[in-house]
């Protein structure tokens, strides 16, 4: 009996299940693939909703507030600069007078800092009541009274724009208010306070420039008074107005006496030649000679020329008076010269201070607005949309970056 081998049927290749090694998707993979498009659509919806919430909604809210709730603001502008008038002075032609040193800091810089300080805010608030003026607008852009002076100064920085051109030294002012008249009043008041500040600076500069010269002049005047009073006391004590003139008079008398003595001696010699010693004329001539010599001795004693007093000391009375008078006159002449120099220096200081006169010149007077220019509705809405879009884009990119790292 013949046996026949039975061969089991071979399944077709197409019917055989593929091995996972050959890249055939497994059962789990076959279940995930249908869910991919759904998750992608879900992410797109999340991005769209986030765009609406983070970009569109803030932009619409800002636009709605700016166009329906924000109060119009009016701007009053003006432009001014500090001018220094330097006219030529007649004192400069005297020569030998040095110029005065100027300020080391710019007056415009000082004024710029003053316009941003709390001092001017307090002064203008006292006059115009800034808290009331700036609290009449919408809740977002108006001032909320009462607040402190620091709060008002911070709000001042928002409503008062000060622009300084360092190249030309021109200051431009832009003042905002909810009423055009209020803006104009605030601008005018700022200009008045600025002018007052420049006037104070000019007065201080003039005082500093002339203070030292004034002190020197006062000292010179006192020295001259003392010297003249000393000369007056000397004249009252000696009853001599000018010892130089008196000594010339005394010298004239002495010269006359010496001439008379010489003539009498000559006459005596002639008499002795023609007459005897018993002649009364000789005796009379001798007595005349004795009298003239005595008078000459007294006059020489007054002048202090080689004579002595009764105690054996040199007379020198008139010579001492002349020496004292000359010393007093030297002191007086020196005081007069000092006074003249001090007066010239003081006049030069005053002329220099007056020559450098500073004042505030407005080339653009405070304007009265006819239409509101604030707030910038289109610009603020566009900026809100731009920055919201940028923030939203950064957040979306960060979210995708974190997803790809997983």
TrEMBL record:
Region feature Disordered, mapped onto this chain: 1-35
Transmembrane segment boundaries: 45-67, 380-402
Bias kind Low complexity: ranges: 12-21
Record-given protein name: Capsule biosynthesis protein
Keyword Amino-acid biosynthesis: no
Entries under InterPro entries matching the protein: Bact_polysacc_biosynth/exp
PANTHER family given in the database record: FERRIC ENTEROBACTIN TRANSPORT PROTEIN FEPE, TYROSINE-PROTEIN KINASE
Keywords: Membrane, Transmembrane, Transmembrane helix
